[in-house]
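FORM 12-B: Structure-to-Sequence Request
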């Protein structure tokens, strides 16, 4: 795949998401921002099947993604606002989609100033290692 790798980003704050999205460029393209578990359960499976999410989700001004749904995301990334049960619920809705889930390891982060920048650094390192080691296939959770 040429160009930036497409990602789905799950966060709770558009302010943090905005800095994460900017920090991931130009190597990664966040095509859609999910801001709740409920939205994730509804929108992520559709996007992973190659479909656009609902028109309401696409038009939502808080969806800071590029909305370029022509490329299937290579991973779903979740920030600190999503716990084990949240991730399990969203993954269950996405069964059958062969895409890795990347989660912020809260043992390595302190929410607050600098959280978004630290997340970007660790996420880029994790993605590089996964691509180089051929681990971008499979429905597994990877912590970064």
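FORM 12-B RESPONSE
SEQUENCE OUT:
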């Amino acid at each position: 795949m040429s160009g930036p790798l497409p990602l789905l980003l799950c966060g709770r704050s558009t302010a943090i998401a905005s800095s994460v999205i900017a920090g991931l460029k130009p190597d990664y393209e966040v095509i859609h921002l999910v801001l709740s578990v409920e939205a994730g359960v509804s929108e992520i499976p559709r996007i992973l099947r190659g479909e656009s999410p609902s028109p309401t989700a696409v038009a939502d001004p808080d969806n800071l993604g590029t909305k370029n749904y022509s490329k299937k995301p290579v991973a779903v990334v979740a920030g600190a606002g999503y716990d084990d049960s949240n991730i399990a619920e969203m993954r269950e809705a996405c069964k059958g989609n062969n895409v890795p889930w990347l989660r912020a390891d809260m043992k390595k982060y302190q929410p607050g100033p600098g959280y978004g920048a630290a997340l970007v650094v660790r996420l880029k390192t994790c993605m590089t290692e996964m691509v180089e080691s051929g681990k971008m296939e499979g429905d597994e959770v990877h912590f970064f």
